[in-house]
Amino acid sequence: MPALWIAHVTVTDEEAYGKYAALAGPAIAKHGGHFIARGGPALARLADFRINCFGHVGDGNLHYNVFPAPGKTRADYEHLRGEVKRVVHDLVDEMGGSVSAEHGIGRLKVEDLERYGDPAKLAAMRAIKAALDPAGIMNPGAVLRAA
């Protein structure tokens, strides 16, 4: 089975700058430590962050949470939001992954799927969507950009 790395971004905790999760499947033992070892220093080149990283043994999810440094707030880092996301997603993509873990793409990560997704798979998804929903009325803009 090929290694599968998946990352997604959600911001639900008021304190958190952003929450990033990577799914490694059976390859977590092979790549998880490399991801953790490389992620912190890559983000440290942008600013001082606190990283809270934990995972699920059963499904191989590695949650990579980026928090403000002590004494700082999320607002102090707002100008870096896109760059933080790019650094984390680029690293996951380099390790053979995609941009969504168990939470899916939804509307928030459509742009990420377009950037990091396999073009052939995206074309197949669009063709299936067009065949099953030619009027584009079923959940428009979720997973695939609305036409």
| Low-pLDDT regions | 1-27
Strand content: 15-25%
Radius of gyration: 16 Å
Q: Give the distance, in angstroms, between the N- and C-terminal Cα atoms.
A: 35 Å
How many discrete domains? 2
Q: Can you count the helices?
A: 4
Computed structural class: alpha+beta
Largest sheet: 5 strands, mixed
Order of strands across the biggest sheet?
3-4-2-1-5
Work out the helicity level: 25-40%
Encode the helix/strand succession as letters.
Answer: EEHEEHEHH
| Top CATH class of the largest domain | Alpha Beta
Summarize the structure.
Helices cover 35% and strands 20% of the residues. The protein has 147 residues and is of the alpha+beta class.
Characterize the structure shown.
By secondary structure, the protein is α+β, with helices and mostly antiparallel strands. The protein folds into 2 domains: 5-104, Alpha-Beta Plaits, CATH 3.30.70.2740; 117-147, no CATH class. Helix content is 35%, strand content 20%. The chain has 4 helices and 5 strands; from the N terminus they run ββαββαβαα. It has helices at 28-44, 81-94, 110-116, 119-132, and strands at 5-10, 18-23, 49-55, 61-68, 97-98.
